[in-house]
Amino acid sequence: MKMSSTRGPAAVAIVAALMAIGCSTDNQAYVSATATPAPRTQSHTAASSTASGQISGQIPTASGSAQPSPTPTAAPTVAPITVSSVSVSPGGATLDLPGSGSGSPIFPSSVQLSALVYLSDSTSTNSVAWSSLATSTATVSVSGLVSAVGTGSADIVAASVQNPSITATVSIVVQANGSVGITID
Question: What is the pTM of this model?
Answer without folding.
Answer: 0.55
